[in-house]
Amino acid sequence: MDEAVSRNAVELRGALAGAPRFSHMSRGERFFVFPVETRRLSGVADVINVVAREALLAGLEAAEAERVCVSGELRSFNNRRGEGPKLVITVFARSLSLAEGGEDVNDIALRGTLCKTPVLRVTPMGRDICDLMLAVNRRCGRSDYLPCICWGMRAKEAARWDVGDEVELCGRIQSRQYIKLIDGEPVEKTAYEVSAAEARLLEGAAVV
């Protein structure tokens, strides 16, 4: 497997939750963004924004509510315009096709370096959770900064890791709503993170 892909691999299968809309131009190519909805076993839906080249969409005659398969990478963008979230998280599509049915899929595998000190906390329901920020390199020399969480015993173990440790994890991309006060008014926002089912230090990294 190509090292860049093995560092950051996403597979989605779910419902197209909205029509593609123009996102940006890069190197003479037009890129579009559209939401894909995947459901967890609990029935909770995660709505994930996907960015794709116009050429990929040209071969996809999909209407709203049809099902699609997406393979690609999780990307981050630092929004400096002052509008919307500061860290924009999307899936960059490498391949795109109509789904023939089957269960929803939301799988991600990452390998990167911790760039912030892990934060261990306890949810109101009494569960241990650890917040991680993972820097994942791209082919072009850039890095994506991806928020991740892990739970229970994995959370307690991850809390002992240090900035600079290399970590491998797999899980799902998760969306959640929260309320932010803007000019004194409550506004609903959406945050994205990787919820890790498995997480480990890579060989050679040591826990102090």
Features:
OB fold (Dihydrolipoamide Acetyltransferase, E2P); disordered N terminus; 208 residues; globular; mainly beta; 2 domains
In a nutshell, what does this entry contain?
With 208 residues, the protein is mostly beta strands.
Describe this structure in words.
The structure is a single chain. The protein has helices spanning 3-7, 54-58, 152-158; strands at 8-16, 21-26, 29-39, 45-53, 67-78, 87-98, 105-114, 119-122, 128-137, 143-151, 166-182, 185-201. It is mainly β and 208 residues long. The protein has two domains: 3-106, OB fold (Dihydrolipoamide Acetyltransferase, E2P), CATH 2.40.50.140; 109-201, Nucleic acid-binding proteins (OB fold (Dihydrolipoamide Acetyltransferase, E2P), Beta Barrel). Strands 1, 2, 3, 4, 5, 6, 7, 8, 9, 10, 11 and 12 form a twelve-stranded mixed sheet that branches. It starts with a helix and ends in a 7-residue tail after the last strand.
Q: Could you state the order of secondary-structure elements as H and E?
A: HEEEEHEEEEEEHEE
Please state the structural category: mainly beta
CATH superfamily of the largest domain: Nucleic acid-binding proteins
How many independent structural domains?
A: 2
* Helix segment tally: 3
Q: Say what the CATH topology of the largest domain is.
A: OB fold (Dihydrolipoamide Acetyltransferase, E2P)
Helix content: under 10%
The amount of beta strand, in percent, is: over 45%
What profile does the largest beta sheet have? 12 strands, mixed
CATH architecture of the largest domain: Beta Barrel
Distance between the termini: 32 Å
What gyration radius follows from the Cα positions, in whole Å? 18 Å
Quaternary class: single chain
The coarse silhouette is globular
Regions with little confidence, pLDDT below 50 for 5+ residues: 1-5
Can you give the mean pLDDT? 88
